Amino acid sequence: MNSKRVFLLIFLLVLIAITTVLFIPNGGILQKEHRVKVGLIEKELDIVHGSDSADLTIFLFSSYNCSFCRKFYNQVLPELEKEYIKTNKVKLVIKPVALTNNESVINSLKIAACINKYGNFEKLNELLLLEPKVVYTVEFEEVINDLIDKDEFVAECMYGGESEIYISQNMIDFKRLNCIGTPTFVINNKIYKGFLDYTKFKKVVEKELAYTLH
Amino acid sequence: MNVMKTKRYFFLVMMIFAVAFVSCDEDEDDETCDSENLSEDFNCPVDVDAIATFCSDGVSNSYYTYAGSDYQCTGVEAATCDQALTDIGIALIEAGCGTKKKSGAYDAGMIKLSAMAENLLDEVRTNSVCN
User: Would you list which residues of chain A are within 8 Å, Cβ to Cβ, of chain B?
Assistant: First the structure.
C-alpha cells in the first residue's frame, strides 16, 4: 500500500468518526437541546384547553385554513384531551394566526377569539374546522353581524380594538419566533414546527413533561 | 497502446450515452394544456398572478394548475372541475383578489357549503351568544 492510499484511509476513518460523534443519538453533540427564552404568555383571548394548574403548557399557533392544523384538532387533540388535559398534566393555549391579509380571514379569527371569551365557542369552532371556506361567504358575514348585534361585549371586542390588537400581536409573536407555517408548537421555550401524529406528539409531551418536572 | 486505450474510452462513453438516452426517453402522452386568465372573474389587482392552466388528456384525466399546485377535476369534462375552480378561487381571494364581482354584487354561487355546514351556521347564530 502506498502512502497516498494510507493517507486516504486515515482521512476517511477520521471523517466517519466525526460524523458518528455528531449524528448518533444519545451522545452526539447535536443532541444537546437548544432552548431560548421565547417570552410567550397566555392572553385573555387565547383559546385554552385545560387548567392553570397543569404541569405543562403547550402554545399552539394555528390557522383554520391550514389542513394540518385541522388534522391536529381532529386526530390528535381528542387523544391529548383524554390522556393529558383532563388529567391536569397539560394545558393547551391556542393562538390563532392569519397567514394572509384577507379581511374575511382576519374577521373570522377576531370573531372566534371574541366568541371564545364572551360566548359559546363550541359550534363556531366546529364550523370553522369543518368548512374553513365558510369565512368567505355572505352568510358567515351575516352571522358575525347578528352575533355583534346580540351581544354588546362581542361588539366591543370586535370594534373596540381588543380582538384586532390580539390577532396582530399573535402575528408579531409568530414572526418574532421565525415561524413560517402552522401548526407550530412552543413547549418549554422549544419550538416544534409542523404536524405530528398522536404517537409522536405523545413522545414530545412526555419528554417535555419530564423536562418540566425535573 | 494509447490508441487502444482511447478507443476503449470512446466506446465506454458511447455506451453510457446510449444507456442514458434510452433511460430518459419517456413516452409522450397526448395531454394538452391551455392557460386561462381568471383576473377579471375574481376582480384581482394587477399584481396578483391569476393565470390558471387547464390540462386534459381527453380520455380520463383533467386538472387545473395554479401557483404551482394541481387542482384535480373529478372527470375529463370541464364541467367536472367545479370544486377545483372553487379551490383556486379561494387561493385567489387569499392572494388579494376580491370576493365581490365588478358589478358590486357578491358572487354567492362561488362557494358552496355542505348541508352540515349550513346547519352549523344556523347553530352558531343561535347558540354562540346569549340574547
Answer: 65, 100-102, 104-105, 115, 118-124, 126-127, 130-131, 133-134, 136-140, 143, 146-147, 150-151, 154
Establish if B120 touches chain A: CB-CB under 8 angstroms.
yes
**Distance in angstroms (rounded) separating the CA atoms of residues B76 and B56:** 7
* pLDDT recorded at residue A51: 95
Angstroms from B74 CA to nearest CA on chain A: 20
**Residue A83 CB: number of other CB atoms within 10 A?**
14
Which chain A residue has the Cα nearest residue B122? A143
In chain B, where are the structural domains located? 32-124
* Cβ pairs A/B, distance under 8 A: 77
- Which residues face B36 on adjacent strands? B52
Q: How confident is the model over B50-104, as pLDDT tens digits?
A: 888 888 887 788 888 888 888 888 887 766 787 787 788 888 887 877 765 444 3
Partner-chain residue, chosen from A130, A146, A150, that has the shortest CB–CB distance to B116: A130
Q: Write the ipTM.
A: 0.73
| Structure-model confidence comparison of residues A176 and B93, the more confident one | A176
Residues 6+ apart with CB under 8 A from A33: A190
Of A187 and B38, the one with more pLDDT: A187
- Whole-structure pTM value: 0.63
Burial class (CB in 10 A: 0-12, 13-18, 19+), A146: middle
Answer yes or no: do A146 and B125 touch at CB < 8 A: yes
CB contact under 8 A, A138 and B106: yes
Q: Mean pLDDT across the stretch A145-157?
A: 95
